[in-house]
Amino acid sequence: MKSFRKEVWLNTSRRREYINITTIVEQELAKSGIKEGIILVNAMHITSSVFINDDESGLHEDFEKWLEGLAPEKPYSQYKHNYAEDNADAHLKRTIMGREVIVAITEGKLDFGP
Predict the structure, then answer these.
(1) How far apart, in Å, are the Cα atoms of 67 and each of 62, 92, 93, 109?
(2) What is the residue-level pLDDT of the chain in tens, covering all 114 positions?
(3) CATH homologous superfamily for 22-111?
(4) What angle do CA 72, 19, 92 make, to 5 degrees?
């Protein structure tokens, strides 16, 4: 079995952003030399998510509306976690969106299927 680990650090300028990291993951996969197997892409921050979906602005807007409806940011006082911070909603949103994805690797490429 062959394994490869790479940390990628991203900085955001807003409270919540959608960043397409597919190209970064593809580049790191190529460096790994792994041709068949699986890849785990894991957000190593407690309020960050990784998901697979179309990188389409309308869908991102739908996510925003949906997530804000499920776990609205304000009022901060609605969350017990916010006694020391103001990010309880981010923890809940991450739980909904997921912390990691596993993708098949076929012939050295990410295999999202047909």
Answers:
(1) 8, 9, 6, 31
(2) 899 999 999 999 999 999 999 999 999 999 999 999 999 999 999 999 999 988 999 999 999 999 999 999 999 999 999 998 999 999 999 999 999 999 999 999 999 988
(3) YjbQ-like (2.60.120.460)
(4) 25
State the DSSP string of 20-61: --HHHHHHHHHHHT--SEEEEEE--STT-----S---HHHHH
Residue 91 main-chain phi, psi, to 5 deg:
-65, -45
Within 8 A by CB and 6+ apart from 8, the residues are: 21, 24, 28
Residue boundaries of the structural domains of the chain: 22-111
111 is written with which tokens? 């295999």
Taking a C-beta distance cutoff of 8 angstroms, is the pair 51, 97 a contact?
yes
Concatenated DSSP letters of 58-80: HHHHHHHHHHHHHS-S--GGG-G
